[in-house]
Amino acid sequence: MRRQIPFLVEALTILGLIAAPFVLPHLGFTPTTINRILVWGLVGIGFDLLFGYTGLLSFGQSAFFGSGGMFAAYLLTQTSMQSSIGALLIGTVAAGVIGFFIGLIALRRTGIYFAMITVAIAEVFFFVEFNPLSDFTGGENGLPGVPTPILNLGFTIIEFSDNLSMYAFLAFWYFVGLVIALRLVRSPFGLVLRAIRENPLRAQALGHNIQRYKLAVFVVAAMYAGFAGGLLGLMQGFMPPDAFMFATSGEIVMQTAIGGAGTLFGPLLGAAVWLYLSDFFQTVLNLGATWRLILGIVFVLLVVFLRHGLVGAISDIYRRVRQGKQTAQPQSVAAVAARKPLAANRAKLGHKATKSKEGVLLAATGLTKHYGGLAANSDIDFSVDHGEIRGIIGPNGAGKSTFFKMLTCEVEPTSGKIVFDGRDITKMGVIDACQMGLTKSYQINQLFEKLTVRQNLEIAVLGVVRGKFRLDMFRALHKVRKLDAQVEGTAELVHLSDRLDAAVSELAYGEKRRLEIGLALATSPSLLLLDEPLAGMSTQERVETVALLKAIAEGRTLIVIDHDMDSLFELAGKVTVLQEGRVLVEGTPEEIKNNPLVQEAYLGGVHEEMV
Ligand SMILES: Nc1ncnc2c1ncn2[C@@H]1O[C@H](COP(=O)(O)OP(=O)(O)OP(=O)(O)O)[C@@H](O)[C@H]1O
Domain named ABC transporter: which ranges (predicted)? Predict the structure, then answer.
């Protein structure tokens, strides 16, 4: 693992924040613009957690920015409250509560529908602020007279009245916001957010309740916006009504895109570019209304040519330089095939040993799945004992994958019953099934492509060791008990120890297939389903993976679907043959090979391979 200097980012940020008010004026930034950059940078941190880290594009941040700001400004101007920090915190909590209820509604949808709901929410808030609530918000006049923040230290009172002291006040809160966000993205919670961004379905299948994680980060982003809204009022001495405008949300999105999403610093840099250019076009070049057009064109150019934004471009260059120095190659097939996983590592994995238990582990009765008029599975009775290795074969379209999807609770059966480990799981969801120890590896790889092999395995292990949802935002990832041991044990088992720090997108296909199996294994399942683990592999990769499967099979209960009969017959103690959605026959590999019904089913297909 790459060693990182502790608190390097934090230390560099402090230096940058100290230098900024002295350096930036020489580049043409006005003191007010510098202060505004910090406010926008802070809203942007929350938005980046939501969009850059979790993949949720929201246009509703103006609703929280405005609400938090108005709450704080109202308390300071219309009530006897004098504490600016108290008002800021109350405004933040209010924005968080509003965010919670809006999140409950908006997060029922994903993708473009989620984004459209947030647009509508921003518009509703704008209307409400201007009309029904104008007595509280001042309507189009906003709330003037927000007092300058004061800090009473007992022996002295600091008043943040001039630009530089206000900068210090804002920079302090920006730094606090950044440190919180850095802790969050380095925590197990933060890694699950990235899993949701990369592959929400797989994150769910690995036992994470993604809906609750999304709601939590939505609330966090709302609180950042609310706090920054409060700061805006304090900075200007006036809470402007345009904080609620949809344009505010749009600017946050654009600034993050310019600076680089998923970087935390991107929004700050994006805000600097955006605000500088808008000042420059309006006041220096006197472009009148045309400044928006020019700024729009600049935005398009920046986003088209810097796909990952300014911070993204810098880190891409850094990564390329690092990659140039590293020469890690995929392991050779011979080397992998020659290696046997260590028994010690299997023990480290702590999988729920099934050898000690006896009897039926999973039983399905009358399992049926209809897609409209098509019966993908009909009336299947099936059971697997503890410690058994069961093979499932059947021609294309026989209903094997659908059967697996029902067993892992990805799709609900039309009728029938599934009992796993003594519990009826027929109507259970995939998250709970995984938490119970029932997982599958997919026919088509379902990995977290932009993350490293280590992070992929960590996501899988976290689902087991932390349960389906945990708000451990401030816990360091490496402090999660057994995480490293489980990750390294699994990597050794699937022969990826030397590739732990490689991005998944850099892996060879065979390595990705092994990682796919590794993800399922890392959840320490008591029943592991492998859907065509050999699919799409070259002959050499098959040799390697069959050896791997044999090693995995020891002491586990497995159900394996594959079209490679030789490999499957070598591995399985018993084989179930599906045809046209029904069980055709069940028996030992020898019985299946010689069964005329099976030969008939495969006639013209892989019959030749079987005899
Ligand atoms: N989501 C779906 N909607 C409609 N039909 C579906 C759906 N999923 C599967 N089917 C249909 O159900 C039948 C069984 O498909 P399934 O993928 O389970 O078969 P399979 O045995 O796994 O096939 P293969 O070996 O080609 O992967 C097929 O006719 C398929 O078209």
Answer: 362-605
Among 401, 559, 561, 565, residue to substitute to test ligand 1 (most atoms within 8 Å of Cβ): 401
Instruction: Tell me phi and psi for residue 104, to 5 degrees.
Output: -55, -35
State the pLDDT at residue 134.
76
Q: Which of 610, 598, 593, 586 is nearest to 391 (CA)?
A: 586
Predicted ipTM of the assembly = 0.96
Q: Identify which of 367, 393, 396, 402 to mutate to test ligand 1's pocket (most ligand atoms within 8 A of the CB).
A: 402
Q: What are phi and psi of 47, to 5 degrees?
A: -65, -35
**Rounded average pLDDT over 154-172:** 91
* Residue-level pLDDT at 4: 66
The string of DSSP letters for 171-189 reads: HHHHHHHHHHHHHHHTSHH
* pLDDT, averaged across the chain: 87
Q: Tell me the CA–centroid distance for residue 537 and ligand 1, in Å.
A: 21
User: Do 342 and 497 contact (CB within 8 A), yes or no?
Assistant: no
Residues 559 and 393: beta-carbon distance below 8 Å: no
Domain boundaries, the chain: 31-319, 360-437+533-610, 449-524
Handedness of CA 288, 291, 292, 294 (dihedral sign): positive
Which atom in ligand 1 lies closest to the alpha carbon of residue 411?
1
Q: Is 466 left (phi over 0), alpha (psi -120 to 50) or beta?
A: alpha
Mean pLDDT of 398-421: 93
Q: Rounded to whole angstroms, how far apart are CA atoms 65 and 94?
A: 11
Nearest alpha carbon, ligand 1 atom 8: 402
pLDDT for the residue 2: 52
CA-nearest residue, atom 13 of ligand 1: 376
Q: Closest Cα to atom 4, ligand 1: which residue?
A: 371
Q: What is the CATH number of domain 31-319?
A: 1.10.3470
Q: If you ran DSSP here, which 8-state letter would residue 26 be given? A: G
Confidence check: pLDDT of 321 > 90:
no
Model pTM score = 0.89
**Which H or E element spans position 403?**
helix 400-407
Burial class (CB in 10 A: 0-12, 13-18, 19+), 322: exposed
Least confident of 12-21, 453-462, 570-579: 570-579
Burial 291-315 (b: 16+ CB within 10 A, else e): beeebeebbeebeeebebbbbbebb
Q: Confidence band (pLDDT; 50, 70, 90) for 334?
A: very low
Rounded to the nearest angstrom, the distance between the alpha carbon of 599 and the centre of ligand 1 is 22
Distance, CA of 468 to CA of 438 (rounded, Å): 14
Residue 134 parent element (H or E): helix 134-137
Its CATH architecture, for the domain 360-437+533-610, is 3-Layer(aba) Sandwich (3.40)
Measure the CA–CA gap between 559 and 90, rounded to whole angstroms: 54
Verify whether ligand 1 is closer than 6 Å to residue 399 (CB atom).
yes
The amino acid sitting at 443 is Q
Helix (H) or strand (E) holding 570: helix 565-571
